[in-house]
Amino acid sequence: MGEMDDELLVLFLTESKEHLSDIETDLLSIEAAGADIDEELVNKVFRAAHSIKGGAGFFHLSKIQDLSHKTENVLEMVRSRKMVPTPDVVNILLLSFDKLRDMINNHEQSNDADIDEIVTALSNLAENNLPAEKKPTVSKMVDITLPNGRSVISVSQFDLDSATSDGKLTYLLDYDMIDDIQRNNRTPLDVLRVLQDNGLMLSCMLDMEAVGTLEDEGASQIPFFVLYATPIPLEGLIDLLGISKDKIIRFNHDTKDFMPPPAAAFQPEQAVKDQPAPIPTAPAVEDHLEETKHPAQTASSAKEPSGSVTAQSDANLRVSVTLLESLMNLAGELVLSRNQLVEAITRNDSRLIHATGQRINLVTSELQETIMLTRMQPVGNVLNKFPRVIRDMSRELQKDIQLQLSGRDVEMDKTIIEGLSDPLTHLVRNAVDHGIEKPEERKRQGKNPSGTVSINVYHEAGQVVIEIIDDGKGIDSENVAQAAMTKGMVTQDQLKTMSDSEKMFLIFQPGLSTAEKVTDVSGRGVGMDVVKTNLDRLGGKIEIDSEIGKGTTFRIKLPLTLAIIPSLLVSVAGERFAIPQVNVREMISVTAEQVKEKIEIVGDAEVLVLRGELIPIIELANVLGVERTFVSDKDERQPDRRKNLADRRSSRHTEDSDELHEAASAGDDGKCHDNRTNSGRRYHADSGLNIVIVTAGALQYGLVVDELHDTVEIVVKPLGRHLKGSREYAGATILGDGRVALILDIGGISEKAGLISVANSSRAHELADEVKREESTDTHAFLLFNNGPEEHCAVPLGLVARIEHVDLGQIENLGGKRTMQYRGGSLPLVTLKDAVQVEQMGNDQDLVVIVFEVAGREIGLLASIPVDVIETRVEIDETTLKQVGVVGSTIINNRTTLIVDIFELVQAAHPEWIGSRRRGVFIAGNAPTVLLAEDSAFFRNQVKTFFESEGYEVIDAEDGQAAWEALEKSGDRVKLVVTDIEMPRLDGLGLTKNIRADARFSHLPIMALTSLAAEEDVTKGKAVGVDDYQIKLDKERVLASARKMLDSDRVAA
Fold first, then answer.
1. 848-874: pLDDT as tens digits
2. β-strand 707-715 against 729-734: which pairing, if any?
3. All domains in the chain, ordered by first residue
């Protein structure tokens, strides 16, 4: 039975770990409920201890059996409401289950474990909650002996009394492991499950003495004794257990003896002896709690990790039967496809080979996905320990902290989940110790005395994101920076160029701590560097957001699995490399003409100017030590001798040497003159730069590569011994063509290259100021089109209803008017030539119709392709090219572009559409006054003209602040406020807030003008008090909205 016993032991240990997996959460829930216990939850925890006790007794794991038995007694008293689960009681139960977990994980040495202290504490709990006359029963033991005088089972009088308190009957069961279990195709665990489900096992013992020694003959029987309490009568028990009546002996509690069965084949003369149990003198429970009040040292969930990725790797993995069936089906499909492929190759049938290849590709992909699912486990396996961590640390640090968990069901690869335990524990412990303030300090700051730590897990962009958020005091980046400089980790010059986030990221440097004092919990300067190291090994990245006085968020991004990771393939000098997609932010192609504009040198570093940011860039070829090349004017790759990316290359190359000479010639004065033009040193289309923007912690930089390829899923292979010490590479992979590609370590590359941030440099501040100035002006959305081949035009996109393709044959000329059949009717058509001095459109042009709504009717503007949409900040010249139908011109994409006024164009072509103006309808001196706030002179003049043409008086202001000052000065005259949104000094939303907050002006209607408002912008504006949104150059709707507002009861027209 040796092999079977080993299998049974593994099964018992696995089931015991499952019983213990949720114990902490359940006990904390029981503690929170207090005297109002959840009986089902207490029963669940009780059954876990009971199951462990029964199995441990069978496998001679005596210390596990004893501790689980004592734990079971305390839980029985809680279940019967004889003991209230106070924090002290639950704390001892938690420690008890911690010890059980340790002994189960190390079962081979469990019988040598020291459990006296925790057993004493459990016994004290039981005694302290019993009446005085019952206290001795806890230590009074009852020995049950066989006729030969050997004790088979020993139980306390307390256990016997508890077993019969609710009417249960007590039996001694005599199983034979050979006849009753093995020969009936049952296992001991099967028997234990039946017993546990239908009663209470007080104790059990496997009589190994009956087996004898190696010199004895084979044993004919192996007795297994169980002292059992159940409400089931004798006859029912015989049917349930499947053993003969003579092997079930009932215990008589009145005589303290066993009642022999009617036909007893087994009639031992059991003697019951009372004796005091050798329990050591028990200290008070409070004393024990005082000795064990450091949960950070005793709770397994809060132990300091080593540098390894996995805290504890379990070799076993439970897999759903459904997944196994799916794998079997896919394996069968793969075999069939293989046979088809062999047949197709034999017949040389290329069509069948292609079809079979596609089928194999499909089956293989499904097989890969299903196999990956077998390794997926819920992240709750890691998160479930944190309620205990928070509870224990809160008690120790005397803080009131609530934990919020979300996303426990999110699944990740088993290896990643096991590797997450240590990093998450460090981050949570730091949030509790360093982040959350003590209740009295939080009260002084106006905060809730109870702090909150939240752990949120969710999917985002093919990754798993884990957020650890606290509402504590936040991280002071300057303190971190000063601590790092004091320890010599960075220099003063480096700090000057660092951004706040990069300074904050210094907390991951080994040995750095900003704690005022060193404690058992933290402050030793170890741990946070382990977090970063372990997350790097897991292929993850971590970000920090913190605000002083508000709190801190650590955001971890991890791949779903480590076995296969999506990566971007790049090449340098003909060699391919893989960059993990988790490190890639974006890819940039800088054309040859843009290099001079986009690449700058700040200090000693080359940087890319990207959307107002300065991003350090390095050439991957330089870091890896391979020769750089460039494409010559003969379309050949040649060695690149330039020092910097922005340097100009010589136009002459000697054939006798590899040296590139300066493109200079000696003049008559003997001096060298540069013959190259300023148009740029790159003349070949392939001389542009391909840059991959990557992130390594808080540092963001660009890798210059020769070529960018596809994003592929790669299988990670470890590096050989000769590359183990390399910082540039994280692994290797085999590509589809059989070639090997090295996987780049983005963090290691930045360290080797000595990259530093330039985010805080003076040039970076200049760019930031430029961006800020640009953002204070509106972004305008235009529809671009052509009239003639060289006549570029634009119209505000917000005025466009639709765009339709049209053939020349669809256009009809009737009564001197142009029309086309459109949606069951006739659509009037106009061209720019009808009102503007432009060329007549040619018959050979590809035409489109841009549909607008003017004066309540639809009209189409004939235009030629290409048609495009652009959002840009432009300055509009309203004088040079202004004429009827054209409000002005601007430069878009380096081309002079006419801005079409569709209303004037329609008025010129169809004057009958435009009704009579309202000029003069207002009584003299009673014309409504409109306050107009717009920073663009062009749009300010246009909108002002709209209103003045209708007879309104207009007070115009160049920004929100000027408008507010004008309102305070002439507020009694103003009946309507019309404002732009993006303006310097005070924007439109700020102006609206001021108006709504002032009782003198809060009644005024407010119209916001925009180029093209997104739904979220409209919602934001209306939330602060904007009444209506309109497109800036939509004259009819702007005026209609103004009339509607002024006709309301709030304002007299």
1. 999 988 877 889 999 998 888 888 877
2. unpaired
3. 1-136+283-293 (1.20.120.160), 140-276 (no CATH), 302-311+320-473 (3.30.565.10), 564-662+679-753 (2.30.30.40), 777-913 (2.40.50.180), 929-1046 (3.40.50.2300)
